[in-house]
Write a sequence for this structure.
DNA sequence: ATGACTGACGCGTGGCACTC
DNA sequence: GAGTGCCACGCGTCAGTCAT
């Protein structure tokens, strides 16, 4: 099932130019036909529904962009910060497919996420060193909370990746064993013909 | 000032009705 | 059937608006 922009717009209750704007801002990978027209898949619609829900909760597009890899996996977030603060809480997750998680796009986004974390850590460290007196305890607590959550999310991601990798190796070994057993039979039949 | 739209513009394409 | 005109819809771009 695929939707053109007008259908997607009706379904999501969002103007077509807003969908184009989100696509550009969030660097969404929307497929096009030979005319260059957008085709939205069910997965695209689901991601856009999540984006819309986050927008309604008060998230900024930049924050949504950071959460996009998780959104694509079906994870849900709740905005727990004040207005203007993008502090989130993971409120559940749902596995939607290995293809998305292991896709090159997802890997690129993971790298961006990691880069963001490094920048945040560096900034935080520098701020602590140079502006120790200026930073209030309240602000520090919020940033630490956010960083702690981001780090936990990354750790979970890594753990899942290793699990999947281990499963893939086992699957591959099993397939090789099966192939080794079945191969001579086929060979025999071929010559019997 | 900044982020997030929103409207307008010009252009391309496809579908349909109409005429020859 | 082929050519033409009109309309709807899609595209990208850019300037403007509005809320924070």
């Amino acid at each position: 099932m695929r939707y053109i922009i007008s259908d997607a717009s009706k379904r999501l209750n969002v103007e077509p130019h807003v969908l184009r704007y989100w696509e550009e801002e969030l660097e969404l990978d929307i497929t096009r036909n030979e005319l260059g027209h957008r085709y939205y898949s069910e997965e695209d619609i689901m991601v856009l529904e999540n984006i819309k829900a986050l927008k309604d909760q008060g998230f900024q597009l930049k924050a949504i962009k950071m959460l996009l890899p998780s959104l694509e996996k079906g994870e849900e977030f709740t905005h727990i910060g004040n207005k203007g603060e993008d502090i989130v809480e993971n409120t559940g997750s749902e596995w939607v497919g290995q293809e998305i998680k292991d896709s090159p796009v997802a890997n690129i986004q993971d790298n961006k996420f990691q880069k963001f974390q490094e920048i945040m850590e560096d900034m935080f460290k520098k701020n602590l060193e140079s502006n120790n007196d200026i930073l209030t305890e309240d602000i520090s607590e919020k940033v630490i909370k956010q960083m702690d959550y981001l780090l936990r999310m990354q750790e979970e991601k890594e753990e899942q990746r290793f699990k999947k990798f281990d499963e893939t190796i086992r699957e591959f070994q099993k397939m090789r064993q099966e192939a080794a057993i079945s191969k001579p039979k086929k060979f025999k039949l071929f010559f019997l013909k």
Summary: The first strand of chain A starts at residue 2 and ends at 3. Strands of chain A lie at 2-3, 31-32, 38-41, 76-79, 88-92.
